C-alpha cells in the first residue's frame, strides 16, 4: 500500500501537433530541487509530465488495489476464504469453481464503463511491489515512458511499447 507521496519522474516531450509527441523524452527528474523544476526550455512547444505515487488522488481510495499484495490478500481473506471454509466439502464435487465479480479500479468518478487509460487526472493502481518489478525489468526507461500512457508518440510503436510495459 502506498502511504506516502513520492515523485517517480518528470519528463519533457516536444509536442508535434495536437496531443502527438515526439519520440524522444527528456528525463528532467534530476532538475527538480525542493519541489521546483529548473530547466531552460528549448525552442518549441513542450509538455511536462509529472508522475508520482499517492494515496489521495483516485475517486475511490478505499477500494481494492489489484497490484498491491496486502490489498489483494485482504480481499482473499474477506471473500474467498470464508466461502471456501463454509463450502469446502462441496468444492470439487458440487462446486467446480468460484467467481466473485471485481469489476474495476474505480479510479475515476462515475460508472460509465468507458474508463480507458489516457484521461487527465486518472489515477492508476500502483504498489511498492510493482515498482520493484519494473526496476528489475528489461524496461530501463519505464519511468519516462509513462507519458505515453496518456498521449501518443509520433511513432505509434513508442506508444504501444509504453502500454506494453
Structural class: alpha+beta
Distance between the termini: 21 Å
Helix content: 10-25%
Q: Specify Rg, calculated over alpha carbons.
A: 20 Å
Taken from the alpha-carbon principal axes, the silhouette is elongated
Q: How do the SSEs run, as a string of H and E?
A: EEEEEEHHHEH
Largest sheet: 5 strands, mixed
> In percent terms, what proportion of residues is strand?
15-25%
Q: How many H/I helical runs?
A: 4
Low-confidence stretches: none
Identify the quaternary structure here: single chain
**Average of per-residue pLDDT values:** 82
How would you sum up this structure in a few lines?
This protein is an alpha+beta fold. It has a domain at 6-60 and 128-164. It has helices at 69-87, 128-136, 142-145, 156-164, and strands spanning 6-17, 20-21, 26-27, 32-33, 36-37, 46-53, 152-153.
Description:
The chain is an alpha+beta fold and 165 residues long. It has a domain at 6-60 and 128-164. It contains 4 helices and 7 strands, in the order E-E-E-E-E-E-H-H-H-E-H. The strands form 2 sheets. Strands 1, 2, 3, 6 and 7 form a 5-stranded mixed β-sheet that branches. A two-stranded antiparallel sheet has the order 4-5. The longest helix has 19 residues, at 69-87. It starts with 5 loop residues before the first strand and ends with a helix.
